[in-house]
Design goal:
4 copies of one chain form a homotetramer.
Chain A: E1 5-10, H1 15-24, E2 30-36, H2 45-48, E3 59-60, E4 69-72, H3 78-88, E5 92-95, H4 105-112, E6 126-127, H5 134-139, E7 142-144, H6 148-162, E8 169-176, H7 191-194, E9 199-200, H8 208-219, E10 226-233, E11 240-247, H9 257-271, E12 278-280, E13 296-303, E14 308-315, H10 319-334
Parallel strand pairs in A: 1-2, 1-4, 2-3, 4-5, 5-7, 6-7, 8-10, 12-13
Antiparallel strand pairs in A: 8-11, 9-10, 11-14, 13-14
Chain lengths: 349, 349, 349, 349
């Protein structure tokens, strides 16, 4: 039996951190050896999160003892700062924060209003949208785990953009559950304020927009890419559904609606043929189809009257949109089966 | 004191019918004299709907006694059929069903798969989007009360289209609470199936699409209008939020984002200046801002990077999207203050 | 036309304060003249609460101008302190906080951990459970508006206790929506933590217990009253359902289940015969039957196997459990019809 | 490697059946070989339930091929009828329906209004509350899997009753998510009717009452047991919280509250010491602590003022209340580790 990899989680007390712990509990090749969290340091993990009681761990302020691999679920800036010492020791890491997502330190500063703590690492980090970037992920020391919205938007649009089926004039209208806003308190996540209502936000520019734009541009280089991204908050805990719109390039798909539809579906199925966690489906999916699982489910279609591409994608923002994809990336980095620890089925209903 | 108008509701047992009864209870010029409902005929209204107990009415199979005005909340086809005898007696009516919304009987047949029961009336009916059509509503015998989605979409886009600010290339991405699906049972409205999930539907063409297209075309005649409409079901009871997208016509708004924004807001404020139930706001609204009230709240903005118009509109699908607008139309028809019976504030939280 | 009474609300920015403003907007004899709120002072009320925009008011730090009557929706201690100057000027007031509910300053200190700011007023204040205490309310200067749980529990049990039908050995198991916890931020009211879950709390003794006990003792003096009260938090915004249990005194109700049931119902109907806001019903009610309205709906029954009284009561915690009852008390104090401003029907669905 | 046991599920299309399939997918000793469902026969399982797509199964009308073990998730009566042929062939089975729960065919008829299809088997079946009945479960051919409410109530009360700490005068006030009502359509499970509301039901006698009474009587024989059981429906999908009340027998627990509390906790901890799926906790639990897992979490306490025992228990009605416990029983019957296939942690948030 191979020795298990000893893994640490920085900031287990946020939703991404706690979801990492839940998933790693069943990972066949990993031992969760350390979980940190300043505010709750010293407490048994099971006291703070009763669902994690079986892990038998205690939260510490800093990683104690030797670990072989690090996940950071800290907020941006704090995350890069906390990872630096581990990286200098040669450890490999997945960073769930935004710190290594944007290639350009100036753009990072513009969107996050802080100076990047380690700009020299930006070029070395790999963008961890596993399906699109496996080679780079394999060899990188640090992975920038994608944002939840970008994961849903980029996976939805990649086949069409890459195959030149659409004009680079894109609208992403996303609907997210409230857990995406994290465990920090705010009036906008207060039950009585957010239940039974829906709202758009980030209309002046959400921080996930430059990330979406950067990665879509890599798929369709040269073009003059225009992206409008409008996220919405809806009254549920988990899940993101993105509805993506783009004009179809004329005469790239078969004439006649049925033929265009089936060619489109074939392009998508082919594109994701070898990807264990992307499922191209033939009926509009729901977010709850992915509840607790690492799937991204995608439904591409042609709007029959306007000749527009419409793609619906669904995922669990805390799994494929955060902790699950982080583990998928670790699996690729460490040469495990890509699906290790991620085989649990979604919960329905 | 003027004599109160005696009003009847056909099919009080659906959500639109019951909301009519709730609102009419406080209408100063109306006496609710008859409420029908086949399946519950003979039962006290307060037994079927405890919140309506104070009305002291009994549900009957047919309207009994004399009424002066009729609301129909029956399903399509049944509605026109049931209204015909009243119209022949000269009564005026508001039809909440889809029966008089499409001007063209062939289009009606195409979308509703039934032959229209009274095609001769299609030309006489007025489309009851009160803000846009007051003159016609004043004089009409029968009003086609708009669908909930069309109300939110058309009010959101009318000023921009009418003023020629946008290209006629429109996307309407709507999010609706479950009450829009009505009181009839279906797996898609079963609590455990619809809670904690979001889904798109009607991608092949929702019945509200031809209605949106017909009315937007009246606002921007001549143009080659393209409309993509994607409704979504979200886990709440009441409310519709529509996010509408259209390319701005170049150099119609001031150069510079701030100036474009403020000109846009001015156009919208001006357009709805005299409308008591449209509120143009300067921050993104939520559906719960309209919970139980007849307001449609609209936030127009310019996407700073793509130069696209984005308009958010919110309303309560059972009030401004159905029963409230029906009463607003009746008020206009009968010469009452437009706001009579509709002054109650929304419920928050 | 009589001059309207000028009313002020202290702390309009909590849920009880905002609900007062919503309801007073339609009160025929009241003009809402001042609304205070430290944290939002200077802002238009409609900016903070869009549903209240039609009131056209601005939030101020202190009451400005002359008012004739005061509602306080401040937290305990702050409330009595803020009311004192108005009371000294001779104004009458309804206090929605807990400050005047317990007759005994020592008990107040024990449960609220602060010294009462105005113990001399405790004997003069009337406990504002309108149905049970109308005479005292009529003449009092200051009304202690009851807590939401006590209102539901006491109205449910009063007829049975007063008529000696039950032993004074009582269990109140209450289920409340989250708005009862107020608008202040806490992890326990954070959407992702409270959605899709139910929990009991206050098992060591909830602050509403001494209030329930004090008032039930007035109904059944002399007895050795034992009350167990367990509140639960459930994932909805508004509403309280209390399930109350007590052993029936033998041979007080007719022998045979049917006869016991109908005698019990008769006792309850009779007890509340003249009360406009208590509805004794013959089928188990739901909290949503009272959504937005001032009703308390009560269903008394006999458990056929154990011979126990079981009473279900439902109300909207922000209306009959707070702002609605406060207005009902004001109506009684000022000699208005008891129902003035409170006639709006509940929202369903 | 031992050969896997081939298992069939009768009626995979209800919530208990589908949850069985979800859990068995990761069971190390089981191969799910057949899933039946009349209404959806012929369809891929993943088409009907996308979360189950990885199972790669097709729904059939009847079990096809050889199976070694049967779970039935059929409705009562149909379940016993469908199991009979398998039992006659010597197969062992867990029946999730109510058919083998009540020992007495006459009582079955009284509560279920049908004649029992196999009364001769009632004595041979073991009641599958695993923690209390392991010996009988080991040897039985057919297991009556307990109802969701009885599981929560009996586990909450067993230690106190068995140790003689309480009088046999019991109240069980339960709060259940809507999935307990199953996948069948009804107005009472229609989203808009059940969201944002809470109601009590079954006040005249719920079918789980005789089951609770039968099993509690086995724990406290001889006594005159009185049980009042009031279930409530609350707006969430999964989970049951039961609040159980009983008078403490005097002087059985230490004098003084703290000492009584700690003795009580010790009794409970001791009682469940060797049970992997019962967790006795020291703070009030929430249903979401068990979301998707097989735990029953129990918090016993003493009401300080009334001297009453209050016990809170939480479980996931579809796991420990149905499919999970069914697998736990199969594990015991077949000599597997009791926890096989049931190690996944609960989902939070």
């Amino acid at each position: 039996v191979a020795k298990k990899v000893r893994v640490g989680i920085l900031n287990v007390t946020g939703y991404a951190g706690l979801e990492l712990a839940r998933l790693l509990y069943q990972h066949p090749h990993v031992e969760l050896a350390a979980v940190t969290g300043r505010s709750e340091a010293g407490k048994p993990l099971g006291e703070v999160f009763p669902t994690l009681d079986d892990l038998g761990l205690t939260i510490t302020a800093e990683v104690q003892g030797k670990v072989d691999f690090i996940f950071s679920a800290l907020p941006h800036k704090a995350s890069a700062e906390a990872l630096l010492p581990f990286l200098r020791q040669g450890l490999r890491a997945v960073d769930i924060s935004a710190d290594f997502r944007l290639r350009d330190a100036a753009e990072y500063k513009q969107w996050y209003q802080v100076v990047h703590p380690a700009p020299e690492l930006l070029k070395e980090a790999a963008y961890g949208l596993t399906e699109l970037n496996k080679d780079a992920i394999c060899g990188a020391q640090v992975i920038a785990n994608p944002g939840c919205y970008p994961t849903s938007a980029i996976l939805a649009l990649a086949p069409a953009l890459k195959e030149g089926l659409v004009e680079p004039d894109i609208i992403v209208d996303s609907k997210s559950g409230v857990s995406g806003a994290g465990r920090g308190l705010s009036l906008g996540a207060h039950f009585s304020e957010v239940n039974e209502t829906v709202s758009a936000y980030g209309l002046e520019g959400h921080r996930h927009l430059p990330e979406i734009t950067q990665e879509l541009r890599r798929l369709a280089p040269g073009g003059k890419l225009r992206v409008t991204f409008v996220p919405h908050l809806i009254p549920m805990t988990r899940g993101i559904l993105s509805t993506c719109y783009a004009p179809l390039v004329e005469s790239r798909l078969g004439s006649g609606l049925a033929s265009a539809q089936s060619e489109l579906a074939a392009v998508y199925r082919d594109f994701y043929r070898d990807q264990p966690f992307v499922r191209v489906v033939s009926a509009p999916p729901q977010t709850k189809h992915t509840n607790g699982s690492n799937y991204c489910v995608i439904y591409p279609t042609v709007d029959p009257r306007s000749g527009r591409l419409v793609v619906i994608s669904c995922l669990d923002n805390l799994v494929k949109g955060a902790a699950g994809q982080a583990i998928q990336n670790m699996n690729v980095m460490l040469g495990f089966e890509e699906t290790a620890g991620l085989l649990g089925l979604g919960l329905w209903p």
